[in-house]
Amino acid sequence: MTKLLILYYSMTGHNFQMVNWAADEVKDKAEVRIRKVEELLDTAGAEDNPAWKKYLEDSKDIEVATSEDLVWADAILVSAPTRFGNVPAQMKFFLDGQGGLWAKGKLQDKLFSAMTSAQNNNGGQEQTVRALYTTAMHWGAIIVTPGYNDDSVYAAGGNPYGTSGTATREGLANDLEGAVRFQARRLVEVSDKFNK
Fold first, then answer.
1. Tens place of pLDDT for every residue, the chain, 196 residues?
2. pTM value surpassing 0.90
3. Does residue 68 contact residue 40 with C-beta atoms inside 8 Å?
4. Pairing mode, if any, of strands 75-81 and 30-36?
């Protein structure tokens, strides 16, 4: 059974929702670990941001990711919001700290897929996913994209690199659930084939 690490950063809960859909989809097909990266901002600011405050409460039992989680995994699904068209500092800080594992070859041949959200349409979603893939390429990981292999990709907005959506105060604007579930399922299916 594939060991799937779902690694994420979320501030207002959008990417947390996405990883929960992904985990639910493959919970019977893979051994799943959900891990969040460490928050670098002062969470006292959540008192003035109801969505952040709610997310902190909802995710309080999720463990913070460690390098060991990456070593454990056969496949890694990353979900992080877009920050100015790029990967948020919290996720980048964690990924940049894996030089020791990379130097020992412990990250090569991991199956890797990514998804994201942004506050507005065309807010850098594709660029964020591709930036995450740049890190994976340096590791020697094997990138697994959803492509246009399921109708759910079109319903979610048609991003073949990785599921992406528009985050609003009311939630995720796109019809993302099906695309997230498809991407998680595809990653596990490819990993199962690869690791036979």
1. 999 999 999 999 999 999 999 999 999 999 999 999 999 999 999 999 999 999 999 999 999 999 999 999 999 999 999 999 899 999 999 999 999 999 999 999 999 999 999 877 777 789 999 999 999 999 999 999 999 999 999 988 889 999 998 877 777 767 899 999 999 999 999 999 998 8
2. yes
3. no
4. unpaired
State the total domains in the chain. 1
Note down the domain range covering 63.
Answer: 2-194
Question: Which of these, 26, 132, 142, lies nearest to 81 by C-alpha position?
Answer: 132
d(CA 85, CA 73): 28
CATH of the domain at 176: 3.40.50.360
Question: Kindly report the CA angle at 141 between 137 and 144, in degrees rounded to 5?
Answer: 95
Q: Which amino acid is at 174?
A: N
